Amino acid sequence: MVSCRGRAVVLACFVCVSLRGLLAQPVNATAEPSPETSAKLVRGPSDALSPGEAEFIRQRKEVVLASLGRLNISSTADSVPHIALLGSGGGQRAAVALLGSLQQMGQDDLLDTLLYMGGVSGSTWTMALLYSDPQWSVNKVFSSQGVHGDIPWWSPVNLIVPGPYWWLKAKSKDEDFSLSEVWGVLTSYLFMKHMDQRLLSAEASRDSTNPYPVYSAIEKECFNTNTTDAVWFEFTPHEAGFPELGHFVSTAYLGSGFEGGELKERKPEMDMVQLLGIVGSALANEDSIAEIAPPWMNKLTAGTALKDHLRIYFTLTILVDMLDSGITNVTDLAKLEELQKRVSDKHLEVVPLHNLTKEKQVEELQRRNLALVEIVQTWVKELDNGVYKVAVTELMEVVLPLLIKWQWGTTENFVYGVKDSEVPDCLQSRVLNLIDAGISINLPYESFLGKKRDVDLLIAPEFSAGEMFETLTLARDYAAAVGKPFPVIDEQVLLDKDWPKDFYVFPGENDQPTIIFMPLFNRINCKDEAEVKARMVEYSTFQRPFSAEKIAALQEIARDNMRNNKDAVVREIQNASTRRQGRRNVTDSAL
Questions:
Q1: What element of type H or E holds 356?
Q2: Spatial CA neighbour of 437 closest among 461, 399, 480, 408
Q3: Which is deepest, 92, 171, 241, 332, by most CB within 10 Å?
Q4: Which residues contact 99 (CB under 8 A, 6 or more apart)?
Q5: Apex 316 CA angle, 311 and 318, nearest 5
Q6: Distances, alpha carbon 173 to alpha carbons 164, 166, 167, 177, 397, in Å
Q7: Is there a contact between 233 and 446 (Cβ–Cβ < 8 Å)?
């Protein structure tokens, strides 16, 4: 039987790396804007870049052009290729592997060829780590050393300074407080060892030293109703919004109350803890939980009741994992291990559920839910009086009610009341529910297809679990559904899915981007398909944080993939430059 600790779903998005720097002070909301300023806070429908992003890209192209010169790639100021690096989902595996890939790109002087960096799910944790340094692509410091790992979350220090306890207690008073905030603080502090309270909009004032970052999420209601044009959501330093609909809001005002495009209530911008709690929230989709439930449970007919039970069980499991952070007292550890066992035993209690009617299954699962909560509540009451008990009690008071509501990524809907026939029914409520985009497509192709960013080359190291090439075929189908260009995927290549090569190129024609696709485990580092499967098990998403040795080994695998294919990457960058110059010449001739 797998322990509840080992089954913690939170490991789907954990990054066992740490951010540098000291804890930031909370940022207060700014003053109400003038009516003239308010009119500029929301934009759309539009398929153009925001003015801020457009100016950044203009400046960044100068960096790229100089980089191309160092690589002996011919280009001109008006034909700089638009290149984006895409980070996939894949939990800790994706975060560590992306870090390794970027380390090698830095060593090979390839980082400055990038205009953009995009990420979903696990890769966004590495992005946040890197962008906490305004000069990361120049400094090339890719630290994985913790800075606060020796301070328990419940320490008296964290009850005073803006650590996890303080942060969560303050956020719990917000009207739109959801499990994303809980998820963000759990992952940020427990595994990242740092509460990153900086604001994404603060990066809008930075120079063009680093590639432009794009974080992706999806809107849960639109995803559940298959409303394709309103599913994908992106966060950038300047704007956040729906790229297919073309509706955006100034990132500093995402979360403020709007109606009919007018600002009604100014609220603080979400910090990076909240944002990462959204973009890494695979657990928000109940179907994700069902995928890792015991096989016999998935045979039940209880439907919604089963999902309710699984989400309560797994969330309590996550909390129990957090509770043991920093505990060194042998007695306290023994008590906690007993709690873990009681929670696990109740979840796996041998009752012949499959032999019961649907109604009886529902009753039994509801009984278990209540029992699980009571087990935790009783354990808290029996703790010895002290700082730890106070902190645990308040944490439970905050989290347990959210298990019933099961709300994730709740933030004010800036298109609420907008008079646009293109705004679908799934966006007619006051709030949005933003969750992990990897639930839809585990690579962020969407933000980089089409005329808006006009990308020539997508470099996509693939760290996902699941069937190889699935992200490619899903993205191809998505592009067809929304009418965006996408290169042809050779069906013969899909036959390599069990033992892929380490490097594929899907060349674009006309306005299609070329895609470089680089599987993490492949024919170069695995002798056969059995070893590919074994590696995926070794570095599986659902496990405790990797050891330092495991992190180093995985980083080296990712670095080798990039190192082995440097010449091929440079060749495709040259091809992208040549193709853009050709397109430029055609345009000039037409004029």
A1: none
A2: 408
A3: 92
A4: 17, 126, 129, 142, 144, 555, 558
A5: 95
A6: 15, 12, 11, 7, 12
A7: no
Dihedral class, residue 586 (left if φ above 0, else alpha if ψ from -120 to 50, else beta): alpha
Instruction: Report pLDDT for 14.
Output: 32
Give the number of other Cβ atoms within 10 Å of residue 472's Cβ.
23
Count of CA atoms in the C-beta half-sphere (13 A) of 28: 3
Tokens 């060749």 belong to which residue? 571
**What angle (nearest 5°) sits at the alpha carbon of residue 227, between those of residues 221 and 230?**
80
Residues 58 and 115: their CA atoms lie apart, in Å, by: 10
pLDDT digits 0-9 by tens, 430-452: 999 999 999 999 999 999 999 99
Per cent of the chain over pLDDT 90 is: 55
- Residues facing residue 515 across a β-bridge: 458, 506
CA gap 210, 188 in Å, rounded? 23
CB count within 10 Å of CB 512 equals: 18
**Count of other CB atoms within 10 angstroms of residue 485:** 15
For residues 245-264, average pLDDT: 95
Under DSSP, the state recorded for 174 is S
Q: Which residue has the higher pLDDT, 92 or 429?
A: 429
Residue 131 is which amino acid?
Answer: Y
pTM: 0.86
Which pLDDT band, with edges at 50, 70 and 90, does 518 fall under?
very high
- For residue 534, pLDDT beyond 90: yes
Residues 267, 256 contacting (CB under 8 angstroms): yes
